[in-house]
Specification:
single chain; 369 residues; alpha/beta; Enolase-like, domain 1; TIM Barrel; 2 domains; four-stranded antiparallel beta sheet; 13 helices; 15 strands
Amino acid sequence: MQIRSIELIEIHLPLVHFFETSFGRTYERRIILVRVEDTDGAEGWGEITCGESPGYSDEWTDSAWVTAEKILAPMVVGKEVDSAADIWNLMKWARGHRMAKSGIETACWDLEAKKLGVPLWRHLGGVNQVIECGVSIGIQDSIAQLLEKIRVEVEAGYKRIKIKISPTWDYDVIKAVRAEFGDILLMGDANSAYTLADIDKLKSLDEFDLMMLEQPLPHDDIIDHAKLQREIKTPICLDEPIKSPDDARKAIELKSGKIINLKNGRVGGHTQSKMIEQICRENGIPVWCGGMLESGIGRAHNIAISTFAGYTMPGDVSASQRYWHEDIIEPAVEVSSDGTITAPEGPGIGFEIKRDRIKQAAKRTAVIR
């Protein structure tokens, strides 16, 4: 494989409904798409999944744009590699910037699978064509509003409900959800909003039999999470601190949590996700695919990687219509009435790119040759 050009396209997509976490509210997504083309004229698509500001991670839209354009793309363009699995190594010299790297790397995987005429999920090594889906529901203006949103998703068939929590939106909220919906599969995502000083409050959540408590403590911690896990019954799920296979190994050795949310963008793409999935599977640690409010391209890549054997819990891979009035792929991602998605049989990501929709939403472009 030899990449001839990398095109970056920033699009703006308004959300159907605002999405709020402990970091704040998001009404519109600024998304960077990556289109790669090889010397034969074949193309592949990826997505840089960072947010608009450095809240969830230290990457954000504008930093990722300049990093991808000025640093990473020139490392890849014109270099010959045996396969898409080698693209990561071309960018290793640059520390960090894993979301920007993932956008380029996953696009190359899509290109390679298309040239081979096989579905990306099979090319990567996936085994489960049908994946179970959950939804992530942000902090709402009222508990009544949250309950109504959960009701819609439960009736739609989603297998698991994740609600965002914070120190001012936790115990009473979860109690109300349990009272209304009984023993649904329920989890809370704190996005690093607590410290060990909140241990009594976090212990109190044990009574609700949550599937997991995701990332309660600081974003870069695996030490205090180990202390907290010894004190609470609810399984801790690690998110932000797991950026590499080595991070996963160390967290497992320290017993920092019992589950890992494996986000493609956060770890740098499919090659790294595959390595982390293997480490977790061999150590009996379940993984699931988290979401970053991706467009259909990023969502398609999430579907592909979720077909791996180690992804044993419903992920945040939900229908396009939950987020976008009109997605940039066709058909749009749909979830069946029993809360599942079937990975497509078409080559590559298996969805057609809506080029007119992308052109309509585009705010800037750059081509690196």
